Amino acid sequence: MADKKKRRRAAHDSDSDSDALPFKSKLKPDSVILQTLKNLKASSAASSSKTLTLADVGLSTTCREVTDLPIDEVQYNIGSVMLNLARSILAGEGFSFNVPSRSSANQLYVPELDRIILKDKSSVRAFSNVSTVRKTTITTRILQLIHQLCTKNIHVTKRDLFYTDVKLFQDQTQSDAVLDDVSCILGCTRSSLNVVAAEKGVVVGRLIFSDDGDMIDCTKMGMGGKAIPPNIDRVGDMQSDALFILLVEKDAAYMRLAEDRFYNRFPCIIVTAKGQPDVATRLFLRKMKMELNLPVLALVDSDPYGLKILSVYGCGSKNMSYDSANLTTPDIKWLGIRPSDLDKYKIPDQCRLPMTEQDIKTGKDLLEEDFVKKNPAWVEELNLMVKTKQKAEIQALSSFGFQYLSEVYLPLKLQEQDWV
């Protein structure tokens, strides 16, 4: 008798949960959703082929790309640059660098590659010119510091580099910008310079990899996850039984999914850069995608900046277009939160935010970008966002309950294959 009462009470509680959580009643058994994910993984593996390069495309425009170089080649290239400078000075022609231009006018979106690349325009950075003398000095100092790092075969952060000569650099944005210039001058990736960004991104879920020889199991790293190594050369031997990679924009959503062990219910790898994507997270995501052959689904805020973040992972950033071949992850699918989700999932008005004039301008600017125009579904979603002038963060789903994201929203999205 007592057992019957418990069963009736449990059934009643279950019905109450379904009523309290919108659309939960639409969810099918997890086994059905898992089969959908297995099909997605299979199709992703089948469609993956050799990654196209600039040479494959055969552009009429001359473009510039950097590659990973060993330390001895970086040292040799620095030596060559300095030798040419010395010859120029001795010839009475002055002291200057030929620096590739990283301005928007010198960038090109290539649809076949689905990423932004750098064209071949460059400018002269002369020591004798009042407007460029300081940048020329900073460039020389950065080259000297990089040579020291290569000689000692050690890595430092961009912050360490800045503090070696604070009075000269004045602001880290200046030393960071010249560091990118130096990468272009030497024709190598920033990683090849032995300068890394501080640890920012984290990963959790169904992934095992070696970090400088130590095997890391990301299912046993707690809700905080494993910090993504700033030096991608330390990472190797990736193994996973995941069905997909879930790329999350913000730390708050990541923490929710990690604490709920979402990756155990639906085998996946969850990764976040906690906002704007850093180089290490972009390199790590690409490495996972290419080595594990897994589909990547992105969860970002429903605002123009969420889509910009997604585009940086997928098509590259304009600031580092010279290294887009190494930093971009092809075929990332936009899972949510999309503008169309706000009405579809009945997000309450009090959880929607009015777009500012700057938001609207950013949205309209994105609509003019070639990488957005290429995807009609993105255009449709952006147009809806600009028209309604409404935005919402991932946390808006918490209005239905703190675990609504992991218990209803994402499972239903996966069940319906609702991504673009």
Can you lay out the helices and strands and say which pair or pack?
Elements: H1 2-20, H2 30-47, H3 54-57, E1 63-64, H4 71-90, E2 96-100, E3 107-110, E4 115-119, E5 122-126, H5 133-152, E6 156-157, H6 158-163, H7 166-169, H8 172-186, E7 195-196, E8 202-205, E9 208-211, E10 214-217, E11 226-227, E12 235-239, E13 244-248, H9 251-259, H10 262-265, E14 268-272, H11 279-292, E15 296-299, H12 304-315, H13 324-327, E16 332-336, H14 339-344, E17 353-354, H15 357-367, H16 370-373, H17 376-388, E18 390-391, H18 404-415
Parallel strand pairs: 6-7, 13-14, 13-15, 15-16
Antiparallel strand pairs: 1-4, 2-5, 3-4, 8-11, 8-14, 9-10, 9-12, 17-18
Helix pairs in contact: 2-18, 4-5, 5-8, 15-17
InterPro entries: Spo11/TopoVI_A, Spo11/TopoVI_A_N, Spo11/TopoVI_A_sf, Topo_VI_alpha, TopoVI_A, TOPRIM_Topo6A/Spo11, WH-like_DNA-bd_sf
Cofactor: Mg(2+)
Function: Component of the DNA topoisomerase VI involved in chromatin organization and progression of endoreduplication cycles. Relaxes both positive and negative superturns and exhibits a strong decatenase activity.
